[in-house]
């Protein structure tokens, strides 16, 4: 025989929490005259598959504090017409979530509605009470009181649930990396949409910046994963700046992508942060060819186009005369290039470290095919698992941090004087490194997205008032 829990005594006003929504403290009005419970919610929109739709919304847990916003999501249980006490009817989304009050917890149904202007942002109806509580209508706070102070501490961020997110992948290709991002996100219950960067257009204004796609305004996304091709870098980074203006979390920011794609700029960033790299030189005048070669050292030398990707536009000049010929040819095409020291001891091998957040989550060694100095997989290089040293790991982390990138493929050469950074890739591929290392790197990417897309804690103003982030 199952014991029936002793009903709680509730006053007409009580403190409660909805932990599955990331709301640790709410002051609620207890109203047995109302059948259903209601939560103050704004920006209500559905997403996800039609068979199991979800709803996302924002909650202002503290009345009159519109600067404190908690984003929430839940599975849609129903959509019902609800008549309020003043006789107005409204079609509302219904969710089920766990309520904690007075040391007890049980699931309740809650309707979502805009209760702006109401004293209480939560209404607890008789359906939620069932046989679990009795109401003493002339009392207040029969159960222990909570405090809004919890919203200014890191606790609210750490305890926030892994809510379902709406994620956009900026990509023009249906390749392995894009498919992995979609599949992994959907397996975690998120909604992941692939957006063709070139088909987006922007409404740029101070009050309501927007992004449109195929004739419609894009919805709010919790996170954006940029997978922007080199040919569309300027427009792609402008689009990311627009997402940043709106306030969307972008895995990699526009400034970091722009700097990493320009090889001259990238090497200047590395030099400014005192990160080891092959000696590099750049000049604009054709009269400086001999001096340019002299700055780098003796042949063999690498001559590299600034816009080169996947090993294309990279030439090994084995003699000074060959280097002079390659430089003259590039200048004849009015191409921008740089000259770089050739690290012989690397012997056609480099190390790719994949950095996500503050960790190197996977690494691989790429070996050039016989007769080839470029180890890129697109040039026929072979990838194998490798254990990196602490110095190599630290160098990769410093390089990604120098560009402000949360996800980066950092390519290193092993030289006699320590690791040398060749390139920092802001849109690294996942296929080669997942197969070579055996690591599920896309899962680590979502760990970072889920952490960073959560609401940030707010801080306390002088006098005890809670302040919003950034104030």
UniProtKB/TrEMBL annotation:
This is Probable alpha-L-glutamate ligase. Its cofactor is Mn(2+); Mg(2+). GO terms for molecular function: ATP binding; metal ion binding; ribosomal S6-glutamic acid ligase activity. GO terms for cellular component: cytoplasm; ribosome. SUPFAM superfamilies: Acid proteases, Glutathione synthetase ATP-binding domain-like. Keywords: ATP-binding, Ligase, Magnesium, Manganese, Metal-binding, Nucleotide-binding, Protein biosynthesis, Ribonucleoprotein, Ribosomal protein. Residues 267-450 form the ATP-grasp domain. InterPro entries: Asp_endopeptidase (IPR008503), ATP-grasp (IPR011761), ATP-grasp_RimK-type (IPR013651), ATP_grasp_subdomain_1 (IPR013815), Peptidase_aspartic_dom_sf (IPR021109), Rimk_N (IPR041107), Rp_bS6_RimK/Lys_biosynth_LsyX (IPR004666). The keyword Iron-sulfur does not apply. In the C-terminal section; belongs to the RimK family. It holds the Pfam family RimK. It comes from Pseudooceanicola pacificus. Gene3D superfamilies: 3.40.50.20, Acid Proteases (2.40.70.10), ATP-grasp fold, A domain (3.30.1490.20), ATP-grasp fold, B domain (3.30.470.20). One of its GO terms (biological process) is translation. The keyword Protein biosynthesis applies.
């Amino acid at each position: 025989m199952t014991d029936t829990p002793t009903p709680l005594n509730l006053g007409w006003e009580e403190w409660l929490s909805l932990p599955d929504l990331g709301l640790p403290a709410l002051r609620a009005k207890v109203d047995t005259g109302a059948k259903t419970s209601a939560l103050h919610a704004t920006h209500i929109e559905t997403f996800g598959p039609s068979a199991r739709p979800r709803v996302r919304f924002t909650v202002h847990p503290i009345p009159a504090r519109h600067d404190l916003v908690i984003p929430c999501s839940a599975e849609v249980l129903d959509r019902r017409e609800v008549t309020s006490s003043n006789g107005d009817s409204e079609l509302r989304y219904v969710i089920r979530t766990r309520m904690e009050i007075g040391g007890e917890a049980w699931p309740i149904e809650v309707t979502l509605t805009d209760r702006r202007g109401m004293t209480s942002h939560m209404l607890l109806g008789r359906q939620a009470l069932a046989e679990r509580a009795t109401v003493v209508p002339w009392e207040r706070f029969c159960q222990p009181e909570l405090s809004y102070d919890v919203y200014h501490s890191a606790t609210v961020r750490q305890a926030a649930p892994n809510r379902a997110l709406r994620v956009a992948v900026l990509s023009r290709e249906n390749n392995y990396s894009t498919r992995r991002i979609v599949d992994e996100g959907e397996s975690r219950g998120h909604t992941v949409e692939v957006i063709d960067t070139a088909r987006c257009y922007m409404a740029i204004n101070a009050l309501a910046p927007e992004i449109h796609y195929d004739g419609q305004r894009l919805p709010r996304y919790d996170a954006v994963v940029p997978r922007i091709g080199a040919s569309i870098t300027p427009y792609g980074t402008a689009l990311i700046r627009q997402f940043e203006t709106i306030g969307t979390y972008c895995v990699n920011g526009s400034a970091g992508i722009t700097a990493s794609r320009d090889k001259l700029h990238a090497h200047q960033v590395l030099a400014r942060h005192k990160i080891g790299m092959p000696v590099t030189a750049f000049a604009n005048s054709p009269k400086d060819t001999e001096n340019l070669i002299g700055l780098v050292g003796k042949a063999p030398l690498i001559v590299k186009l600034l816009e080169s990707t996947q090993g294309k536009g990279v030439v090994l000049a084995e003699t000074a005369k060959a280097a002079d010929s390659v430089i003259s040819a590039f200048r004849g095409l009015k191409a921008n290039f740089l000259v770089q020291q050739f690290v012989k001891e690397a012997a056609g091998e480099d190390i790719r470290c994949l950095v996500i957040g503050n960790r190197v989550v996977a690494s691989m060694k790429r070996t050039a095919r016989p007769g080839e100095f470029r180890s890129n997989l697109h040039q026929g290089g072979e990838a194998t698992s490798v254990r990196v040293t602490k110095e190599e790991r630290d160098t990769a982390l410093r390089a990604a941090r120098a560009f402000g990138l949360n996800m980066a493929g950092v390519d290193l050469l092993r030289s006699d004087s320590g690791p040398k950074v060749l390139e920092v890739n802001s849109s690294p591929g996942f296929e080669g490194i997942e197969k070579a290392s055996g690591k599920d790197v896309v899962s680590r990417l979502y760990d970072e997205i889920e952490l960073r897309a959560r609401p940030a804690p707010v801080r306390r103003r002088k006098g005890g008032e809670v302040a919003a982030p950034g104030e």
